[in-house]
Write a structure and sequence with these properties.
The chain is of the alpha/beta class and about 160 residues long. The protein has five helices and five strands. The protein has two domains: about 110 residues, D-Maltodextrin-Binding Protein, domain 2; about 40 residues, no CATH class.
Amino acid sequence: MEPPYQHQSQKAFFVLKNSPLQLKCFEDLSGLHIATSINARYHTRFDDNSTVEKIPVQSVEQKFEMLLLGRVDAVIHTCTGAVSVLKKMGIEKDVRVAAFSLFDNNPVYIGISRKSQLMNELPLVEPVIREMIESGELNGIIQKKYPAGWEKFCLPP
């Protein structure tokens, strides 16, 4: 649905809290095993880089399970998207976000499944969502979704 509710996306790298890895720049990723999502595109520079071993898995939870088991060095995921998963898994104190993140102009939209009954209501829903985005109300709802202190995981763009 138009318009996008975000215009920029942060792809953060997560490592174990006690890891000696200091990811401060793109070159620090070279030679690492990084858990990714199957068929996901993150950032051209990362996606096309052959010095990083990308380990694709089916779910965000699997990414962090692999990190906890030591099967990967790091996880890449949208920062805000990972926060809820870390909280749900109860591992937010075991994982830290690395200093280096990838930022990209990447519009993010609200999507409705074509199979959803809500598709029949799209002409009614779309103007409401547009108004909520333009007024900042949707952003307020998104902020409430994340656990208190979630900002500590994410670096400002």
